[in-house]
Amino acid sequence: MKEYKNEKEFLEDYDVSQFAQLSMTADILVVSVSDQENENYRKTSKKMMSILLVKRRGYPFKNKWCLPGGFLNPAKETLDDCAMRVLKNETNLSNIYLEQLYTFDDLKRDPRTRVVSTSYVALIDKNKLTEIINENASWFDIVSYEEKDDIVTIALNNGDAQIDFSIKKVLRDKTTDLHSFSTLDNKYLAFDHPIVILSGLERIRNKIQYTDIVFNMMPEYFTLGELQQVFEVIMGKKLLAPAFRRIIANKVEKTNLMQTGGGHRPSALFKYKKRN
Amino acid sequence: MKEYKNEKEFLEDYDVSQFAQLSMTADILVVSVSDQENENYRKTSKKMMSILLVKRRGYPFKNKWCLPGGFLNPAKETLDDCAMRVLKNETNLSNIYLEQLYTFDDLKRDPRTRVVSTSYVALIDKNKLTEIINENASWFDIVSYEEKDDIVTIALNNGDAQIDFSIKKVLRDKTTDLHSFSTLDNKYLAFDHPIVILSGLERIRNKIQYTDIVFNMMPEYFTLGELQQVFEVIMGKKLLAPAFRRIIANKVEKTNLMQTGGGHRPSALFKYKKRN
DNA sequence: TGAATAGTGTCTGTGAGACAATATTAT
DNA sequence: ATAATATTGTCTCACAGACACTATTCA
């Protein structure tokens, strides 16, 4: 091995190709909350989580749905940059909540060649989504999300197509909450994206309890009933209103605006209040 | 663009080199708890967290310390495999608690070329460490770990050398606990490893509170006093014994072994009890 | 004997779960 | 008037923080 006098000399002589290389992508689970229309004038509209999927127009996985994503340009951008670029392309939004989720790298996750994917979770308030998005993109409501005996079944629907898939969770270590995921049923999603979706949903479900990320999915003004519904749909269970109000009381600021027109008592509109 | 009849035909024609490529490494923060010797025969030995570092013998960062790590072989191994391989080389241990931490990918984190690093946290019980390790590797005690005004200062010591560094934490988003880290002072550590170390320590500090990962750093039999000390050193604060005992009571099983010889009342030895 | 740790008992305050009760709207 | 949601009050139970107290060892 050649001896170098200093680091500068070493770097000038360095052969970039000496280590085997691979491609990377950033894939993004874009999550929002949508309202369902409503028959009864009295009832409030039901809220659902929804995620953004893109229909693949070319191989591999032609005509299957996948998460928005793109290849990393290693010379110029970081994975964060790459994720923001993809998000901008799909939603025309920037300044969005974006968090690295996990790096998935099964040898066979991409049939072309070795592609390592670093996944992200993005949260957006659908009311801000005015611009048209990619014509191959579509919002899917999470119409079902159930776990039983460590098997998770999820159903997505965009009003046109339904996507069902199921995943087996295997506890990786007796001391922790970490699981390995393996896809059991999946006809409609490309790559390992069922697993990415589930990981992201679990991350959100987890973090909503000890952070304020929920407000990234809320409009500026909202009622406590709406906020509670978002919590309920993300956590997958009903909450009691008095307890809920106590818990979020100090994160929220009452305005003197009211929401009327609901066939029932009007409710005060609140804003997110920073700082605990 | 050429039209393909099916995915098989597409894959046979696929040009691997069409996307720019890069190298990846897996870097591992190996964490354990060590005992300090003791002057007073009555006092129990003080516990400290310790981490494994390797002295670099070549460029770049020649003679600086870094986390154990290695380049990924994209054709044959996953990042998890790679991390386990590195761990086996350094500690000769397998079957160790290993958890993916974060993927770091600053453009300039490696002066040679673009190298994306997926970092891991490994927890080990030092009592199992009988085999000799890499002659360039050394255990460093975390002799200081303080946070003030979003600046974290850490000092490491292996009995021979001292490593001091400090990192600034910047809240990335008002709704969450996520921070960006930037290194302020660092003379002795290679790459972006100050940030990896801090991220890993925060992950452990966080997870010790809602999982059982602490038992990965404990021997089979331990006293509740020892266990409490490990919690205290990881959480960076003192705990009250009665409360601590109540909290871990159902995770732990009393044996009929006793630990004597301490110049004070002997204590019962406990074992980790799985299942909540 | 005394320093040091082991181990238990109990008071108190906080906060979540549960449920009851009242308020107010549109049709 | 009624269905539906909004909002508040209050009881109870679980549990963590705090502190007092007892137990037991070895130099």
Round the Cα radius of gyration of chain A to an integer and report it: 22 Å
- The sequence of SSEs of chain A as H and E is HEEEEHEEEEEEHHHEE
Indicate the structural class of chain A: alpha+beta
Strand content of chain A: 25-35%
Largest sheet of chain A: 10 strands, mixed
CATH structural class of the largest domain in chain A = Alpha Beta
The number of helical segments of chain A is 5
* Helix residue percentage of chain A: 10-25%
If classified by CATH, what would the architecture of the largest domain in chain A be?
Alpha-Beta Complex
- Give the CATH H-level superfamily of the largest domain in chain A: Nucleoside Triphosphate Pyrophosphohydrolase
Q: Tell me the domain tally of chain A.
A: 2
Number of strands of chain A: 12
Termini separation of chain A comes to 58 Å
Topology summary:
Two copies of one chain form a homodimer.
Chain A: H1 7-12, E1 23-35, E2 47-55, E3 65-66, E4 69-71, H2 79-91, E5 97-104, E6 115-123, E7 137-148, E8 151-157, E9 162-171, E10 179-186, H3 193-207, H4 224-235, H5 241-248, E11 252-259, E12 267-272
Parallel strand pairs in A: 1-6
Antiparallel strand pairs in A: 1-2, 1-4, 2-3, 2-7, 5-6, 7-8, 8-9, 9-10, 11-12
Chain A binds a DNA duplex (27 and 27 nucleotides) through helix 5.
